[in-house]
Amino acid sequence: MNKRLTRTDYLFALMFIFMLVCILGAFFYGLRIGQDKADQKYDKILHADKAVTQEIGAYDQQVLVSYYHTIFLPFREFQNKWFDLMSQIELGNSSVDASAVLKELYKLADEKYNVLQSKNMPASSPLLVQSHQGYLKSLKLFADTLKSYQSKANGLSGAQLIDAIQKDAFFQEAKTQALTAQKNYFDSIVAWNQTMDHDMEAFDPNNNANLDQWRAMNINVKNQYITAKLLKNKAFQPFYPQDMTIRIDEFIASGQTKKMNVNDVNQTMDLLLNTNAVRSGDFVKGKARWYPKELLPQLPFFSDVN
Fold first, then answer.
1. What is the pLDDT of residue 83?
2. Distance separating alpha carbons of residues 139 and 109, to the nearest angstrom
3. Quick one: pLDDT at residue 92?
4. I need a surface site. Which of 107, 146, 252, 293 has the fewest CB within 10 A?
5. Spatial separation of the C-alpha atoms in residues 130 and 211, rounded to whole Å
6. Model pTM score
7. HSE of 146, CA atoms in CB hemisphere, 13 A
């Protein structure tokens, strides 16, 4: 005769089943939490690896060359035209229609602004992003300056017009933005150099370099130093920073610094600027003689006269 299960037996069985369900639930819940934590851990590692990869390639030569052609060169084309046509106005030739010249420059500034506005730099290259934005702001300010003087240009002599533009607040800021953008680009070249030469010695361009410190710098650090000083002096010039660099090296090597009792790079720069002793293309002409073994990115302005 079968023994019937008592109420206690049923209660014990239910409790056993309930505990078994709880144990299984806790097991799978713990397993899920473990998987989530593992996924988060490896996701962080994966993204960290990607971030390192982006940082390493932020200023590689391909990026620098792309920036040169898409951002730097269009602005340079405007800059060259600016100095060319401003020189025509300054000469005071009666055949020069100053108003028409300013209108031409305004159209060019607006055209180059639209070109640059359509371009983008990768966020992984912040110096180039900043440089891009600086050139955009500069072109906009140049355009505003030129537009404001078109109607009154022919009522002033060439010298008066040039003087008025030079003192204009918009023009002053346009120069500052352009020189800041230029420095950011050359800062990125130094960043590239540091990835190629981990022992490269940097120099804080906010400091004034004496002649011995200047001699110890490599070409890219020298150029960076020049861009910082041009910015500080608001010296918007038609030449490239490297053109000033080679003229300083020539000036020191020729013994002129000793003859003129010049003790630092800033004094040398002032002398060269005040005597208009620097020309666009000076670097390219003397590069083979002065910097045959220097490491430079393959950018056109280091090898072509333009």
1. 97
2. 6
3. 73
4. 293
5. 31
6. 0.81
7. 24
